[in-house]
Amino acid sequence: MTQAPHLVVIGAGPAGLIAAEHLAQAGWRVTVHDRMPSVGRKLLMAGRGGLNLTHSEPADPFLARYGAASPWLAPMLRAFSAADLTRWAEGLGQQTFTGPSGRVFPKAMKASPLLRAWLIRLSELGVEIRTRSEWRGWTPAGDLVFADVEGATETVRPDATLLALGGASWPRLGSDGGWTQVLTEAGVAVSPLKPANCGFEVDWSPIFRDRFAGQPLKAVALSHRGQAARGDAMVTAYGLEGGAVYALSGALRDAIAADGPQTLEIDLRPDLSRGGITDRLAQARPSLSTTELLRKALKLTPAAINLVREGHGPGLTPERLAAAVKAVPIRVTAARPLDRAISSAGGISRDAVDEGLMLKARPGVWAAGEMLDWEAPTGGYLLQACFATGLWAAKAMAASHL
Known about the structure:
By secondary structure, the chain is of the alpha+beta class.
């Protein structure tokens, strides 16, 4: 009797676990290794504020969220779409709902119920999960090397290997990017890892920083070099963060790296035209101070009012106020460090893998998830691509062993 092929998955996040599930269902023996004491730690962190599984927008704008990587990710994202991911979650007993913004969440909002149900399914399929097992690379003969917490090593030679070690954001949760050196030494082309969906540093005046750090800027529009994003931002002691900032983070990060500090413009009332703002200001009592005028006529918060002063300086005339509110210039000096980012860009280059995501330099070894060189904004796009690439690699492995 022929023994079932053996898959080793390295990394117990969404990409690795969905591949493990698929091949276990196909009759493979599957062992998952993870260096942390428990699995899915970054998934659990993502669920702390409500687990945003995916997004319900139409396919074309959905795919465009992946920027330069969208042409090669598109087949994978179509093969395991947002609707497929939603059905999969509901198959684990996690009913979902779509929020006003189009984001899809489990009704429980947290990741823990989904992860518990998933681990039960994997156990029933015979998947073995080995925690505190750190991958150290390959032996000269090509065997995988793993070390336990005591430093003792073992070697394994599976029929197929999936690398799903994540990027390098939130390293305390397990994905520290240490694999980049191992793969580079193995001849795999790896683009440098960079922060994505990150905050940016701003040299606030001490008064503004001390008074308004931690204050939100609600329903604003940010723009930089012709790109714009609407949503919320947050003033922090170091600068700015939040969904609208993250949406521009890739281009802004690269512009700073290439040309130095950049000017980010903030429209504090994107729902009103400049003319509409001018009319509201004109209708207010002439005796109002600038602060009272902005508060009463435009409903700006104290943080937003003082941001206008921060960007334009004191002494704005009423005639200049409308233009000032529509375009507050903020000088951003640097992206926040990679270990403080939500996700990372860079990773295994597109040319380093074949159509099935197998490493060209290491036949029999596939890669998936955030290890690959792509980035996307928050909103469900990150998890969707991790699931989709993991499943795509698993299907390629299955096809290679027919």
